[in-house]
Specification:
The complex is a heterodimer of chains A (140) and B (81). Chain A has 140 residues and is an alpha+beta fold. Chain A is built from three helices and ten strands; from the N terminus they run βαββββαβββαββ. In chain A, strand 3 (36-37) and strand 4 form a beta hairpin. In chain A, 35% of the residues are buried. Chain B is α+β, with helices and mostly antiparallel strands. Chain B is globular and about 35 Å long. The termini of chain B are far apart. Classes of the chains: A alpha+beta (140), B alpha+beta (81).
């Protein structure tokens, strides 16, 4: 399932939702707001999203990971709006029969997300606010 | 043809618009649209200069020919996750 939301999420609830008898394990990645970025103190963060395209790109990435690694299910939740230090930003939760596929799929999803999902962070520091602009698709 | 163009993040701040309609000759490419947007919003405060173009929710090559009714979006390199 793909979710782009202002609301916080519960990793436990998401893993419970993904559980079924064929699942032998889960791998989850949770990204949070760090208090430091490139040597500067980060006070808070704003996240902007192009929602229609973000959902489309996340669905594509999820589909690629499901077929490439043969995992049972993948849930991706990404938040937007105003966030404080320590808040959750993103969850990638993968259920699989075996651990290797689950680790590989989780890594693939978060790496691709950072390259090609239209979401932008704006960090508020003591010296003002700045956009973080880092990722672009490998190919179009 | 008339295109709806959406702007996000630093590009939205630069143009001071969330979206606008842009008229271009039939057969214009994504690159031509980008140049037209840069011409309209000449106070280019975009030092890195990188603008990504998406059409109907997918990234496109600069040579992609645009069609009436396409939803085009211009934005900087992404930073989710």
């Amino acid at each position: 399932m793909i979710t782009v939301t202002r609301d916080d999420f519960s990793v436990d609830e998401e893993l419970k939702r993904l559980n079924k008898p064929t699942v032998g394990g889960f791998v989850s990645f949770v990204g949070t707001v760090r208090a430091e970025s490139e040597g500067e103190h980060v006070e808070s963060m704003e996240i902007e999203v192009y929602p229609e395209m973000a959902v489309k790109q996340l669905e594509a990435i999820r589909g690629e990971a499901m077929s490439r690694f043969g995992v049972e299910d993948i849930s991706i939740i990404h938040r937007y709006g105003d966030l404080a230090v320590g808040d959750n930003i993103v969850l990638v939760a993968v259920s699989a029969g075996h651990r290797a596929a689950a680790f590989d799929a989780c890594r693939y999803v978060i790496d691709e997300l950072k390259k090609r999902v239209p979401i932008w962070k704006r960090e508020h520091t003591p010296h003002g606010a700045r956009w973080v602009e880092v990722g672009r698709p490998d190919k179009v | 043809m008339r295109l709806r163009v959406r702007y996000f993040a630093s590009i939205r701040e630069w143009t001071r618009l969330r979206e606008e309609e842009v008229d271009l000759p039939e057969g214009s490419t994504a690159e031509a649209l980008k140049r037209e947007v840069e011409r309209r919003h000449d106070k280019l405060d975009n030092p890195e200069g990188t603008i990504l173009v998406a059409v109907n929710g997918g990234f496109v090559e600069p040579t992609r020919v645009l069609r009436q009714g396409d939803e085009v979006a211009l934005f900087p390199p992404v930073s989710g996750g």
